[in-house]
Amino acid sequence: MIALEGLTKRYGGKTAVDGLTFTVEPGRVTGFFGPNGAGKSTTMRMILGLDRPDGGSVTVNGRDYVNVPLPMREVGALLDARALHGTRTARNHLRWLAHTNAIPDKRVDEVLRLVGLESVARKRSGTFSLGMGQRLGIAAALLGDPKVLLFDEPVNGLDPEGIKWIRELMRGLADEGRTVLVSSHLMSEMALTADHLVVIGRGRLIADVGMREFVRHSSGVLVRADDQELLTARLIGAGASVEPGPEAALIVTGLAAGEIGKLAMEAGVALSELTPQRLSLEEAYMNLTRDSIEYQAVVA
Ligand code: ADP
Questions:
Q1: Which end of the chain has the smaller Cβ count within 10 Å, N or C?
Q2: What CATH class is the domain 2-209?
Q3: Which of 7, 9, 11, 78 has most ligand 1 atoms within 8 Å of its beta carbon, as the pocket-test mutant?
Q4: Whose CA is closest to atom 12 on ligand 1?
Q5: CATH assignment of 220-277?
Q6: Domain ABC transporter spans what residues (predicted)?
Q7: pTM (whole model) above 0.85
């Protein structure tokens, strides 16, 4: 588990991470989502103790990661796969990491097999494609068999096959009971990968919500009724939000079409239209950032 408490980071006069408080639970993939510059990488660096917070705290499995004697056994991280030294072979790179963390050599061959790099283990990593470099970075993250894994934008620049592979890998790691935090600036990617979603914008927490819940809130229902005023009151009473839609229709979010139909029936309101309208997740995110306070109230 990772726990952040009021985590804050400033660069010069600018606040990059602004009082973040949330936990990342084991056994699921938590998506860490926000536009470029939102503060995802800075947060991840602070979790790893690579950057010192200006306020608040972060613990990994209950303690400061900085004070962990053999860090690779506690947390595995893929930060920037391009920051690789190219002169060592893949195998030697991993053996060197293993040595400094008291990890047996045989684990190196295990992780090379796990990420599908056995055949190129004796090639210099500088000759690797982006996808192979990414696999090597993941091999390093897995080396210490850690219970907590961080992936910062792992699918950037990968081909569809590599993307699918990383998704399945993260799913498998979560299913083994590990804590998995993966960042992305692409909501479509999050939707396919994450069970839970932490959304930040300008360094602040915008939402901490289950993926299914988020998707539910991202789909509205277009409703036309004979007494829209009465229905609107009932819908709001049931926790939905109601906005004006096209041609005097209502757009209802927060309730499924079936629930709306039932409420209308109970209120004696006749419906002439009840049509689910799926927003794209990107649109949902735009709504979420626009009405972040309102949305959090709904989720809570
Ligand atoms: P993300 O990973 O979500 O794209 P970052 O954490 O990289 O966001 O950046 C958050 C903000 O902090 C940005 O405005 C960025 O310019 C700034 N920032 C990040 N690292 C540094 C640094 N080392 N020095 C100065 N500013 C930084």
A1: C
A2: alpha beta
A3: 11
A4: 16
A5: 3.30.70
A6: 2-227
A7: no
